[in-house]
Amino acid sequence: MHPETCPAESTLEEAVSVFVELRPRLFGIAYRVLGSAAEAEDVVQEVWLRWQKTDRSVVVSPVAFLSSTTTRLAINVAQSARVRRETYIGPWLPELIDTSTDPEVGAERAEALELALLLVLEKLNPTERAAYVLREAFDYAYAEIAEILQLSPVNTRKIVSRARKHLSAEQRGAVDTAEHQRLLTAFVSASQTGNVASLEALLTPDAVSVSDGNGIRGAARIPVLGRARVASLATATRQFWREADVRGVQANGRAAMMIYRNGRPATVLTIGASHEGIHKVMWVFNPSKIAAFLDSRRRSTSPLGAVRHAP
Prior knowledge:
This protein is of the alpha+beta class. It has helices at 7-34, 37-53, 62-85, 115-121, 126-136, 142-149, 153-170, 177-193, 196-202, 227-235, 238-242, 287-296, and strands at residues 203-212, 224-225, 245-251, 254-261, 264-274, 277-284. It is globular.
């Protein structure tokens, strides 16, 4: 130790070092459980404050302690978020995050990151969602998940298995990133030119279009169902595309389109696609969610985020 460095400073430096290393994983867990980057950041900040106050000399495994704290806090927030979302106007979509500079968002694998899957995860209760995320996206052992969730290993296996079955009934075989990009580009091109026939050829018969605007003008307040209706909606307003500046972005590990108006980001468009075609078209109009997407780009350049120190 440097002679001018006191033990307390050294200990805090170690605490910061450990937290910075694990922060991407902690954010990745919280984000997948919550579907909100802003709420996930709040959870991670709270974990950081608790980590400072903890007697770290008795913590055997920092990763286990921090993962457990993050997961439990995220479950609590998810339970209260369900009540808040009941007042949301129109369909609710998870917040998109920019993954161009942080492709895995702390995951060892990219599971449960694509927007269409995050939306399906919302149908699970928060504990089921957390168990699935810890197992599928971060490869935690069942015994570790059981300890985090304070359940028996047998019950934990049942919860993960039930979650898998529920999701498999909702999921379709996703296409690779190149095919996803091709389908999205073709969808935008056909929409811009008003080519309804081309659009219908890209869509599955049961395609659905979901617009998240929280009451904003121009955003459909109910999902639009069926190939013909989705194609018609995408081409209904020529002015929408004529005044738009469309730029490619990467969101949740997949290609997406940011639509600008008068130089300002106004809409994010992405899709869910399988080998049968595009089955879900997702439009984000809510200004706060677009702002959160743009803000997520800065997360990777600030390892601790807006750090607050424990009082």
